[in-house]
Amino acid sequence: MKYLLVTGGVVSGLGKGVTASSIGVLLQACGFRVTSIKIDPYLNTDAGTMSPFEHGEVFVLDDGGEVDLDLGNYERFLDLKLTRDNNITTGKIYQSVIEKERRGDYLGKTVQVVPHITDAIQEWIERVAQIPVDGKEGPADVCVIELGGTIGDIESMPFIEALGQFSYRVGPGNFCLVHVSLVPVINVVGEQKTKPTQHSVRQLRGLGLTPNLLACRSSKELDDNIKEKLSQFCHVPSSSILTLYDVPNIWHIPLLLSDQKAHDAILKTLNLRGVATEPNFKEWITTTKVYDKFHEMVRIAMVGKYTNLSDAYLSVLKALLHASVACNHELVVDLVPAEHLEDDTSKEDPDAYKAAWGLLKGANGILVPGGFGDRGVEGKILAAKYARENSIPYLGICLGMQIGVIEFSRSVLGLHDANSTEFDPKTKNPCVIFMPEGSKTHMGGTMRLGSRRTYFHVADCKSAKLYGNASFVDERHRHRYEVNPDMISQLESAGLSFVGKDETGKRMEIVEFPGHPFFIGAQFHPEFKSRPGKPSPLFLGLISAACERTVVPASKGYGKLTNGIHSPMLKAAAAHNGNNGFKSSNSSLNGVYTSTTTNGVCVDGRSC
């Protein structure tokens, strides 16, 4: 087994996760099997109890692991199915060591950071690296390890020590270290400054780790004299100093690394040159450039709670992108703060209210993602009502499905106080309730998590057709509340159709509103299994339906939508999934555009 470690210096947020994923893609292109491990030095056992504002979205794996969003990047880039153990945290390591101590495994010994914690870290890495995650038998060839945080952080010190020992243990030729650092450009003089990277590498070397490659983040390509200076002071060959300068989207990074012959330096360090093939990026290059050819645009309003941080909905944005690429449309996503749609905002902040409704009315489709807590719930209900009454394509995920049921109960059944017991424990009409097997005393790891099977109960429903007329699907879940089984007959009598249910037939998984162009809610999170070249069927259905709507300028400067004919695109989407027309691959691009204003702003600076 070969090991490649990616560390970061100077500041956080330089893109270690994307760099690690891109290196994995590069190694796969050279013919090697790859697995990934993410080390998060925080004391939490996992990411499940952290706010999205702290760490972005919580990514959910098949085995129910609640992990860092970087594992989502690994799965999408490398087409892997990782496990909860592929995410190491300080909390997990200390918990395992303390459990051993309580069992008496260290009987007679004083349990210390060195050697017991550091040994536990190394044992964890070696054990997890052997687990196949690409659907093939046997371990991978290379394990790419990303160390979260920044070199010098107090909380990462045990991991640095453990990895220093580990590199010595596995020996030369089996360990490669790539250090991601910052080379800032001082705008006043336009000069690239190497001092931050010099200090970062000096600190890394002082802690017992020596970088084999430097990946330097900068706004522009490094000058040759800057590379020579870094080589001299950091003791790294100039040929092993890579520039990760700003590019239009992250899918260019593997190509950027390949162009700089990063694979040559990595393969040389890991003694893999003799068994490697020449990197094959033909498909990657083709699909990375395809987005530039799109002339038609599809606009999705995503109504959520955490709209100030797009990373909180990273997988949703990626799933929308995968679907829009499959439909040959340029994607614009308007992030609409849910509370800005509420009546109270019209009085407190009329401009924000007007802007939010302008975005909603100017969208080709509406999406309400998952979330927790009551902030913005009434705004989400208003968005679902607007979509249902105006025949706008709507996809509700997890809470978004429950929102659709609450809105229908209020507007159609006339149950004006209908609500979820999460938001109103005393409601007389609880159409969404706490699941009986859930824990009300412990938060971490107590939800209904991971891959669960959903059976279709209506053969000709839109959802089943989108999944290729399958009789069941396996999707990932993360929820504590469910649609009240006691209200199903009442809801279905009024027009809702619960087309997907769990194995017992009592837990609702997919709801549709027949007669609507596209109104679907899913209790699961389809975004977690969407891949480049193989978009999630429900996201593909949403984008397909949204592409059939055209925006007509309204007198007040907003967009007004006209009803389109949705069936041709939906049939095409279903056909693509039924015959596997979208080939699963590791290729796509990062053309997601987000905005919180009435004019969508593209990530590459263009006005949308």
Automatic annotation (TrEMBL):
A GO MF label: ATP binding
The organism of origin for this protein: Glycine max
GO biological process: 'de novo' CTP biosynthetic process; CTP biosynthetic process; pyrimidine nucleobase biosynthetic process
Catalytic reactions on record: UTP + L-glutamine + ATP + H2O = CTP + L-glutamate + ADP + phosphate + 2 H(+)
All copies of domain CTP synthase N-terminal, residue ranges: 2-272
Name of this protein: CTP synthase
Lineage: Eukaryota, Viridiplantae, Streptophyta, Embryophyta, Tracheophyta
PROSITE patterns in the record: GATASE_TYPE_1, PROKAR_LIPOPROTEIN
HAMAP family: PyrG
Domain Glutamine amidotransferase, first and last residues per copy: 309-543
Gene3D superfamilies according to UniProt: 3.40.50.880, P-loop containing nucleotide triphosphate hydrolases
Enzyme Commission code: 6.3.4.2
Superkingdom, taxonomy of origin: Eukaryota
Pathway: Pyrimidine metabolism; CTP biosynthesis via de novo pathway; CTP from UDP: step 2/2
Record's function text: Catalyzes the ATP-dependent amination of UTP to CTP with either L-glutamine or ammonia as the source of nitrogen.
Protein family per UniProt: Belongs to the CTP synthase family.
Keyword vocabulary terms for this entry: ATP-binding, Glutamine amidotransferase, Ligase, Nucleotide-binding, Pyrimidine biosynthesis
